């Protein structure tokens, strides 16, 4: 990642940290579960492991999911614009796009 992208991501994270606390985060996860996006414990774990540092294989391993399941879940989230996928060679590093998730869950009619 280049410095400008890192700085932009840090600003977004800072803005969201100012708005989010534990309770709203839990509510956000519950809404994602209600929408059948986080439909299993493994999907919840994978989602929570997407920190912009871990690759798809690492997320699969730590969540107990198979690599293919992690790849499909990441592709699903990417199609919804819920994550941005940073690609380093063949490795994919998913970064949660909280802004799009909040827009989808709270602002879409």
Outline the structure in words.
- Helix content is 64%, strand content 11%.
- It is built from six helices and two strands.
- Strands 1-2 form a two-stranded antiparallel ribbon.
Strand count, sense and barrel status of the largest sheet are: 2 strands, antiparallel
Q: Would you tell me which CATH topology applies?
A: Arc Repressor Mutant, subunit A
Percentage beta strand: 5-15%
Q: Describe the global form.
A: globular
Instruction: Flag low-confidence runs.
Output: none
Percent range of helical residues: 55-70%
DSSP helical segment count = 6
User: What is the level 1 CATH name?
Assistant: Mainly Alpha
Give me the strand/helix succession.
HHHHHEEH
End-to-end Cα distance, whole Å, is 35 Å
Strand order of the largest sheet: 1-2
Category by helix and strand content:
mainly alpha
Name the CATH homologous superfamily: Winged helix-like DNA-binding domain superfamily/Winged helix DNA-binding domain
Mean pLDDT, to the nearest integer, reads 87
**Per CATH, which architecture?**
Orthogonal Bundle
- Count structural domains: 1
Brief rundown of the structure:
By secondary structure, the protein is mostly helical. The protein has 6 helices and 2 strands; from the N terminus they run H-H-H-H-H-E-E-H.
Features:
109 residues; 6 helices; two-stranded antiparallel ribbon; Arc Repressor Mutant, subunit A; mainly alpha; 11% strand
């Amino acid at each position: 990642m280049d410095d400008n992208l890192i700085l932009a991501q840090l600003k977004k994270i800072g803005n969201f940290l100012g708005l989010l606390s534990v309770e709203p985060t839990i509510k956000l996860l519950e809404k994602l579960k209600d929408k059948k996006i986080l439909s299993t414990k493994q999907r919840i774990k994978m989602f929570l492991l997407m920190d912009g540092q871990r690759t798809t294989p690492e997320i699969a391993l730590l969540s107990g999911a198979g690599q293919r399941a992690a790849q499909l879940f990441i592709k699903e989230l990417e199609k919804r614009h819920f994550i941005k996928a940073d690609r380093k060679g063949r490795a994919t590093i998913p970064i949660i796009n909280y802004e799009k998730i909040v827009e989808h869950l709270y602002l879409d009619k």
